[in-house]
């Protein structure tokens, strides 16, 4: 546990620095799923390591040790973690959990708001055209979701570009991209080091929708023009949800003007190895902690048994002395 409990922290730091840049160069759909897996595993590893470190300090509180029936002296002798580290870990973990709960409430409210907006939109088709002069186009998740486009946006685009825009927004709905966003926001709330993954994830989702739109329209250049014009037209407007002009628009346009991204296995294999190391180290640290606790419980039981035996012997001798007298 002395070393393995800290490995998830190292893995998280490496992931936060390296993975976002790599994900932007990979096929977007695969990159989105990879980012989701990385975020979940590293967040669990981060929280688990903090919990193990915090437990080493909490377990040495006499009242806790009495309830758990383990020896504080054995824990203090075997535990390599300083109490200040355990206390700091407990504070960071508690802060992360509170932040996670707040973020979860916000995500639920956002989803409910989107569903209400879907119900208020005119018509019952997937595409809803609103009579608004400002250029707007976005996807509202719901059951089912809706693609919302303003007349101001439609006037800015040609026929092929409109098809590209519709295909882009429908790709957001089909891929349930709002769930990916919610996952990244929740993991970033628990562990602030994962915020770069959430930022990279937003870009990857837009690229995913771009690539699907290019496949359906059959013209990558038309999708690039649609993305660029939509971004210029709605630069001053607010986007409440996934929108065609989200992410880094210049990078998306450059990617669309080139060939589709090539498939690469090495980054995914390296990421899988890194996550496996994170999981294995956490399991090893938990196993060491469990064994340490077993030894502390055994020592407590042995001490309790010895004390009870000594007390019984003293009582027996007292009874014998009374009989002789």
Structure description:
This protein is mainly α. 74% of the residues lie in helices and 4% in strands. The protein contains twelve helices and three strands. A three-stranded mixed beta sheet has the order 1-3-2. Strand 2 (137-140) and strand 3 form a beta hairpin. Helix 7 packs across helix 10. The longest helix is centred in the last third of the chain and has 59 residues, at 266-324.
Index terms:
325 residues; three-stranded mixed β-sheet; 4% strand; elongated; 3 strands; mainly alpha
| Average pLDDT reading | 83
Rg estimate, integer Å: 29 Å
Strand order of the largest sheet: 1-3-2
Counting helices, strands and paired strands, the structural category is mainly alpha
* Percentage beta strand: under 5%
Helix content: over 70%
Counted beta strands: 3
Could you spell the SSE succession in H and E letters?
A: HHHHHEEEHHHHHHH
Taking the alpha carbons of the first and last residues, their distance comes to 59 Å
Described by strand count, sense and barrel closure, the largest sheet is: 3 strands, mixed
Shape: elongated
| Helix count, DSSP H or I runs of 4 or more residues | 12
List low-confidence stretches.
none
